Prior knowledge:
By secondary structure, this protein is α+β, with helices and mostly antiparallel strands. Helix content is about 50%, strand content about 15%.
Amino acid sequence: MSQQRARSARRPARWWRRAIPARLGHDVRHAARRLARSPGFTIVAVFTLALGVGANSAIFSVVHRLLLAPPPYPAGDRLAVISTAVPGSGIRVMPTYAELTTWREAARSVDRVETVMAIDLAVAGDAAAEIVPGARVSVGFPSLLGARPILGRTFLPEDAAPGAAPVALIGEGYWRSRFGARPDVIGRTLLVSETPYTIVGVVPTAFDRALRGGARRELWLAYRAPSAGSPASQPGMTVVRLRPGATDAEAARELAAIDSAMVGRVVRRPIVERPQELLVHGARPTLLALAGAVTLVLLIACGNVANLLLVRGAARRREIAVRLALGASRGRIVGQLLVEGLLLATMAGVAAVLVAALALRVVVAVRPTNLELLDQVRLDGTTLAYALGVALATGLLCSLLPALRASTPARGGELAAGSATPAGVAGGRRFRSTLIVAEVAVSVVVLVSAGLLVRTMLRLREREPGYQPAGLLVATISPPRARYESEAARAALYRDVLAAARRLPGVAGATLVYEAPPSFAPEFGSLEVAGRTAPVDPDAVVPTNFLRPGALRVLGSRLIAGRDFQPAAGDAELHEVILGASTARRLWPDGEALGQRIRRGGWDGPWYTVVGIVADVAGSVSGGDDGRPQVYFPLDPAVGSATLALRVRGEPLAVVPSLTRMLHAIDPRLPLRDVATGEALARQTVTRQRFTMRLLLAFAALATLLAGIGLYGVIAYAVARRTREIGVRLAVGASAARVQRHVLLEGARLAGTGLAVGLVAAAAASRALAGLLYGVTPHDPATFAGVALVLGLVALVASWLPARRAARVDPLVALRAE
C-alpha cells in the first residue's frame, strides 16, 4: 500500500486537475445546492437574465449577418459593389458597359469586374408564358461567387462573344419543379421573351441570394457584349473583387481617374461600397437603433439581477459573518459568491438561446419585404458564443459588487441574534435604489423611442396619399420585343388590352401608366422654365411619371386646378404636362402655373404646357421622396413596357383570374407580372417605420415590465426588512393609510428621479431617430408626457402592492416575531 502511495505521489497531476483547482468543483457544487434551496430566486434571476441576453443575442445575429459578416463567397471580404453618383444629385446609377470594359483593362486595384441585373423573365410554357425570377449576368459572375453546378457547367468566356448562341443556367428549384429533376435537361431549350436559350447547367438556387438581399432567382442568362451602336448600355449592378491590400477609397480614386481619362463622357463619381450596405437597403440606422434598444433592455435585466443578488447577500450577512469569524478569507467568500453568479449566468445563457430563437422568429415575421435576407439569419456558432459570453459577462458584472458588499468584514452587530438591521444594509439599500433609478431612466429612453415611432405611424396614416389606393389594382405588361418590334404593333396591343380590361366584370376604369403610384421614374436633367435664363429647380433628377389621358380619374388623383391630358388629334404628339402641387409652388411661388411652359433641361426637346396641378403623391419617408418635384408627362402609346391600372369595385385581387384569362385570349404568351393592390404598394412606403416600431414596442414593453418588477422588488424588500418598525408604528397609533402613503412616497421618489434622468437622456437619444420620423419632432412633448404617464402608472402599481402589504401588518405578530 505504501508503494502504491509513493507511485501516486510521483505521478504527475493530470492537466485538468492543474487547470481546475479542486475547490472550484467544490464551489460549483456548493453554489448548485444553494440555488436549489431557493428555487424562486433562481427561477426569477435566470428568467430575467435570459430575457435580456436572448433579445440581445437575436438582434446581434441580425446585425452580424447584415452589417458585419462578409458575404459567404470566396474572398467575400474583398467583394464590393460599384455605382456612380450623378452630378448635383444624390441619385446613383450603375456604370455603363463602356466603363466596365475600361475598368477591366486598366484598373489595378480590382482583379474581377462582373455584373448582374435582376429581372423577371417570361418563359414560354405549354399553354401560356410563365414569369420566372431571373437575372442577366456577366459570364464570370457565377465563378466569382464560387457557384458549383449540380449538372453541366457554368458560363464560359466565349458565351459573351458577339453572335454567340444564347445560353442559360437554371436553379435547382426550377429544375425540379419544371423538369422533374431529369438529368437530360442539359442541352434543352427555353423560349425566354421569344428568344431560345440553351440550358448549359443547373446551379443551386441560393448561390447568389446573400449578394442580392435574399431574393430567389431561378434563371440566369449570359450577358453578351452590346453591339457597336449601343456602347452606353447599363448591364446592371457591378460587383468587383478588390486585390489583396486594396481599400475601397483607393479603388474609388483609381476608377474616377480612369473615367476622367475617357474622352467624350460626362464624368460621374464612382462609389465603392461593401455589399452589406446595399443589402440592408438603408436600414443601418434602424438596425443600430434596435441594437441600442436591446442593449438597454439587457442593462435593465442586469440591474434587476444585481438587486436580487444584493438582497440575497444582505439576507446572508449573518451567515457570512460567522464564516469570516471562524477564519474564512474574504477572497474565498467572494469566490464562492462569484461562482454562484456565474452558475446562474450559465443557466441563463442556455435559456437565452431559446429566447433568442423565439425572438428571431418574431423579427423575421415582421420584417420589411425588402429585407428578405433576414430569412437566412440563423443562430449560428458565432451567435451562440456571443450569447454565452454575454451571459457570463453579465453574470460576473451582476454578482461582483453584491459579493464584495456581502463579504465586507463585520463591524459589529451581525452576530447578534436580535439584530434586525445589520451594518451595511443602509448602504446596500442606497445602491439598490440607484439601480432602480437607472432602470427607470433606461426604460424611459426605450419607451420614448417607441412612442415617437407610434406617433409617426399615426401621422403617416393621416397624410393624404395624393391618390386612392383602395380599389386600385396594378400589373406590369411587357410585350416581347421579338414579336412586338414595331411601334404600331405595340400601340395596337395596348389598345386591345385597355378595351378588354374595361369590359371585365367589376372594373370601373382602366388606364396605362409608366410607374404604379406611389413610385416615380428618375428623369435626369433639371427643369427649365420658359423665359428664364437658368433652371429654377436645382435638382438634377426629377421624379417623373407618364400617363395616358384619363389616368388621373382611374388612379383617384385629386385635381387641384386645370385638367387631365386630352387625346391628341391623329398621330400628333401631346406636349402637355401636369405638375404636383409643391412643384408648381416651387417653380412659380408668386404666380399662376397653368399655361406656363417647361422642359427637361439639357435635352433641347420640346416645351410642354402646364395644363393641370394635382395633389402630391406621398412617397417613402425614409427614401426622402416626400418634398421632391413630381412631374407627369404624356405616355408614349407604343411604350416598351407599361403598368396596367384598374379601378375595381370590391376586392381588387378578385379580378386577377379574369384579367389573366383576358390577356391569354389576346396573346397566350403575354405574361402578367408584378400584380399588386394599391394599398399594398402604399404600405411599402412605411415598412421601415412599421418594422422598427413593432420591435421597439416589444422591447419597450419588456423594459417597462423589468423596471416595474425591479421597483416592486426593492420596495417589497424594504417593507419586509422594516416589518418590526412598521409594527411598532401601528402599535403606537399610526394609521394604516399613513403607513401606506409613506411606502408609496418612497416608490414615487425612486420613479420620479428615474423619470427625470430618463427624460433628459431620451431628449438626447431621440435625435438618432430623426431619419425615421414624419410629422413628429424628436422632442415631441406629447410623446414625452405619455411616457411619463405610463411609467408613473407602472410605478404606482409596483409601489401599491408592497404598500398594501405594509398597511396590513399585524403589530402583535410583528413584535412577537422579533
